[in-house]
């Protein structure tokens, strides 16, 4: 009987899907303020949100070139609500003293109270509402 239970547990262990997050490298555009902010001004984007983000950064001492721990970096979202363009920046202080544009985009929409479709899950007001695969 115990062998049967072990066998069933082994089958269940290997039959379950496994999920793992991984850090990826993404190209970003970095420069001093006199280089970055004219790009935002040309699109008439203004500061809408700011805060701190946790982000992994380059670390030449690590084998994979990425820091082991995330660091706190100032972040800002600039947008033009008329043209619906936006830019997301992070700031790297001394010794770098550069701003990095980590994303630019278009079709920015205000969606407070609306749902967000992401993959096969719909998020609504910060809660997982339903798995869309159950309803398709």
Q: What keywords describe this structure?
A:
136 residues, alpha+beta, 5-stranded antiparallel beta sheet, 18% helix, 38% strand, flat, disordered C terminus
Can you walk me through this structure?
The protein has 136 residues and is an alpha+beta fold. The protein has one domain (2-105). The protein is built from 2 helices and 8 strands, in the order αβαβββββββ. The strands form 2 sheets. It has a 5-stranded antiparallel sheet with strand order 1-5-4-3-2, covered by helices on one side. The longest helix is centred in the N-terminal third of the chain and has 14 residues, at 2-15. It is flat. The model is unreliable at 126-136 (pLDDT under 50).
Q: Helix/strand-derived class? A: alpha+beta
Question: What's the helix-strand series?
Answer: HEHEEEEEEE
Shape: flat
What does the average pLDDT come to? 78
Q: Which stretches are poorly predicted, pLDDT < 50 over at least 5 residues?
A: 126-136
Beta fraction:
35-45%
- Give the C-alpha Rg: 22 Å
- State the helical fraction: 10-25%
The total of helices stands at 2
Largest sheet: number of strands, sense, barrel closure: 5 strands, antiparallel
How far is the N terminus from the C terminus?
41 Å
Number of discrete domains: 1
How many individual β-strands? Answer: 8
Strand line-up across the major sheet? 1-5-4-3-2
In short:
The protein is α+β, with helices and mostly antiparallel strands and 136 residues long.
Write the layout of secondary structure elements.
Blueprint: H1 2-15, E1 29-31, H2 33-42, E2 46-55, E3 71-80, E4 85-92, E5 98-105, E6 115-118, E7 121-124, E8 127-131
Antiparallel strand pairs: 1-5, 2-3, 3-4, 4-5, 6-7, 7-8
């Amino acid at each position: 009987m115990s062998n049967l239970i072990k066998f069933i547990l082994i089958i269940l262990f290997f039959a379950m899907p496994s999920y793992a997050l991984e850090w990826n490298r993404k190209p970003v555009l970095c420069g001093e303020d006199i280089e970055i902010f004219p790009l935002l001004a040309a699109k008439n984007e203004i500061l809408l949100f700011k805060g701190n983000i946790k982000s992994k950064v380059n670390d030449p001492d690590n084998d994979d070139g990425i820091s082991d721990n995330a660091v706190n970096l100032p972040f800002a979202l600039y947008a033009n609500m008329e043209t619906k363009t936006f830019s997301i920046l992070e700031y790297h202080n001394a010794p770098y003293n550069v701003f990095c544009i980590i994303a630019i985009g278009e079709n920015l929409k205000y969606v407070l109270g609306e749902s967000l479709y992401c993959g096969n899950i719909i998020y609504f007001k910060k809660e997982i509402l339903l798995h869309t695969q159950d309803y398709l």
